[in-house]
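Can you give me the bound-state structure? Components:
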Amino acid sequence: MKAADIVVIGGSAAGIPAAITARRHYPEKSILLVRKEKQVLIPCGIPYIFGTVGAPENNLIPDDTLQNNNIELIVDEATELKPIDKKVILASGESVKYDKLVLATGSSPLLPLIPGIDKKNIYLIKKDVQYLHNLLNVLKDVSDLVILGCGFIGVEFADECKKNREINVTIVEMLDQCLQIAFGEEACRCCQEIEDYLEKRGINIITGVRLEDVLGDDKVSAIKLSSGQEIKADALIVGIGVRPDVDLAQKAGLAVTKGGIVVDTTMRTSDPNIFACGDCTTKFSFFTGQPSGLRLASIATTEARIAGANLYEISRKNPGVVGVFCTAIGNLTVAMAGMSEKGAKQCGFDVVTGEAEAADRHPEAMPGMSKMWVRLVFNKVNGELVGGAVRGGPSAGELVNTISACIQNRMRANDIAVFQIGTHPAVTASPIAYQLVNAAEIALKKMKS
Amino acid sequence: MKAADIVVIGGSAAGIPAAITARRHYPEKSILLVRKEKQVLIPCGIPYIFGTVGAPENNLIPDDTLQNNNIELIVDEATELKPIDKKVILASGESVKYDKLVLATGSSPLLPLIPGIDKKNIYLIKKDVQYLHNLLNVLKDVSDLVILGCGFIGVEFADECKKNREINVTIVEMLDQCLQIAFGEEACRCCQEIEDYLEKRGINIITGVRLEDVLGDDKVSAIKLSSGQEIKADALIVGIGVRPDVDLAQKAGLAVTKGGIVVDTTMRTSDPNIFACGDCTTKFSFFTGQPSGLRLASIATTEARIAGANLYEISRKNPGVVGVFCTAIGNLTVAMAGMSEKGAKQCGFDVVTGEAEAADRHPEAMPGMSKMWVRLVFNKVNGELVGGAVRGGPSAGELVNTISACIQNRMRANDIAVFQIGTHPAVTASPIAYQLVNAAEIALKKMKS
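Here's the bound-state model for the whole set.
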C-alpha cells in the first residue's frame, strides 16, 4: 500500500497550489498528488483552444511544477475515501494511506434537464483533453453552432469558435443580457459593448429565452426556444454553470451541502485530518458571510494556499470570497471585484458610487491608448470600498487587482483618494486623471452632500 | 484688487489637483489658479515630444478641467507673497487677495557648476513649450548629442531623440549604471536590460564618470569627462535632478529648508492659511519618517489632494512618501514601489526578499505574452511589505500599484500569499503562477527557515 504524509486528490487550479503550498510550509513531509487526468488543462484557457491557441496541447499546465517541488504524482481516480483508516482507494485497486488529506475534486458542468439533451453533438465544457479534441473535430463539419449560456464561457467560446472557421454562431441566454450575473446591471454598458462586438463579428445573440427542446434524430439538428423559435444547430455547446464534485466526500460521510463539501474558515472539513479547497467546497461572501455561488480558478488557488499552509499548523484564515474576475473580448477588457451596486443593495448595504474615465496613456497621443473607465461602490455608512468595475485595455486586468487590494484592506474612499500611485506616459493614466483615485473622490463628494 | 477664497499658485501636477480637490470639498468657495505658463505640459510626457508624440502641442494638459470645475485662471507670475495682508503680488502689478493659499510652485532643473556650462546649445528639461520647441529645432542640425544623467529623463530622452533622427547619442552618468538611484542595485538586471536595449539602438552609454568641462567657442562643440575622454557634442541635454522652487515662500518668511517649503503632515506651511504641495515642499519617507528627496508627478498629485481637502477642515494626513515609479523602454516596462533591498538595509531594516517570474498570459501561447518578474522586500521582524519591483510588459505599470496598495496597508507576506486576485488568459498570469502571491510565499518560506 502506498503512503504519504500529505495526499492531495485533484490536480488542477486547487490541487496544484495546495500541494505546492504544503511543500513550502512543510518541507520535511512526503506529498502525493492523485489525479485522474493524464494531462491537465488550464481551465480558463479552454475557450482559446478553439481559436487563438488552436489545440488542447497548447493549453496545458506542465507537470514539472510538481516534480520541481518533490511532489509524487499518481494518475488514477480516487473512488473511495475511508476517513477512519485514513486511506483512499483508487480505481486501479491500489490504496493510499495519508496523514493529512486535501480534497480538490473540482466541479462538473451542468446539463439542462430538457428533452433530447442526450443527443449526439451536444458538448459540455469538460476539462478533458480527448473530449475537447473530439469537439474540435466535430466543429470542422459544423455550419450552425448554438451556444447555451452567455456568461464568460458563452462569450469567449462564441468569439473563439468564429475565428478561422466558416460557421454561424448563435448564443442563447435566459437573462436579458450577456454577462449579467457577473457584472450586475450597472456595468451593462460593458455587457452592451461586448454584445455589440460579438454581433459585429456576425454572432447572433438571443436573450430572455430558455432552451425547451433539442430536435433531430440521434444527432442534434435544431433547438427550440421558449419563444417558439427554432434554430438550426449541427452542434450545441452548453455553458450554464457547474456543480461541485462531492461524491467522494459525501460517500465517506463528510458534511456536504448543495454548495459543496462543508469547510470552516481554515478550509478544514468535518474530519479534522481532511481539508478541501476549490470548486468542490462551500463558499461564503467576504461582505456578508452568506453562502456564495462563485466558482473561479483564482478563488480555488487562494483557498488551496490556505488549506496547504494549515495542514499541520493553522496560520491562515479564509476571509470569504471577494470575487475578482475579468474577461477580454476583441480590444476590450472588462473586470470586476467585489459587489456590484445592485448586488450590494440586495444584501442590504446603503451604497454610494463614483465613476471616472480617462486615457490609459498620457498624453493621449501615446501608442496603445484606450479609454479606461472605473466605477467604485462604497458602503455609505462606514465609507469602505465594497466593489469596483473596470473597462478598458489589457491593463484593466491588473488594475482590478489594485481595487481588490483596496477592498481586502477595507480602505475607505478618503484613503483611496490619497492612494500613492505610480504612473508613466507609456503604460498608465496621468496621475491627475488616475481613475481609481478620482472615482473615490467623486463618491466621497456624494457621501458628503 | 482681485480676490478669491482659495488661491493656488502653480498649474501643473500639484496645482491642478489641489484646485480640483478644493472644488470638490468646498463647492461654495471661489477658487483662482495663477500660473506663469500659457500652456501646461504633461511633465512626464516631455521626453516623448522628441520622438513618439512629435511636438509640445501633443503633450499638453487641457485647461477645460479648470473651466469644468469653475476654477478661475490667471496666466501671470506671482512675484511676491504678503502673508500678513493675505495677498499675492503678480508680475503684471495686479494683487490677489486670498483666504487660503496653496503654493504649488514646483521645481527647476539643476545645472552642474562646471566651466563652459553657459555655452549655447546646452538645454535643461524645462516645462516650457517655447523652450522645448527651440530644442526640437536645434536637434534638426545636431549630429552628436550628449545627455548628462542616466535617470528616467536620460534614458527616455536618449531613446526618443534617436527616433526618426540621424543622430549619435551618448549618455554620460556618474554612477555605475543607468537608473541605479531609482531601482537600487537589486534591480540591476532591469537596468542592465535597459542599457542593453539602448546600446542595441546605437546609443553610447558611459558610466562612472563626471562631466568636467564643456568645450567650444560660444556653442558647445565637445565635452570633457573626468576620465580625460573628450566626446564630440553639438548639443548637451542635462537631466541630473531638480531643486524645489522656494523663492516666493522664502522671501515671505515661511519656513524653508534645502528640501523645500516646510509642511506638516496636513500639508500646511508655517503660516496656518498657506498650504504647499508637490515638488516645492519637504518630503519624508513612509517607512522611516526621514527626509525624502523623491520628486515625482504622482507624489505631487497625492500631496495636492491632501492639501486641497484640508484647507478649511483637516480630513487627510500625509503618511509620507512610499515612492512608486515606472518607466517603459522598447517592450520593457520596469516599475518599483517603496524601498529596494539595499535602501531598506541602509535604513536599518532587517529584510527578506522573494522573487517570482511567470508569463503575463496563460497559456503562454496567448498573444502579447511577456515574462513578468516580481521581487518583494519584507521587513523580517514584523513581516510587513516595504518594497517591490516589477519587470515585464505594459501591465507592470498597474501591477506595481497593487504592490503599492499592499505596502500602504502594511500587508504582511502571509496576507499577500492569500491575496484574492482576478486573472484572465488574455491579460494576466495564471492564478497558480501569479507573481505577487508567489513572491510573498517564497519570502515567507525564507522568514521561517
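A couple of observations. The first strand of chain A starts at residue 2 and ends at 9. Residues 13 and 399 of chain A are 23 Å apart (CA to CA).
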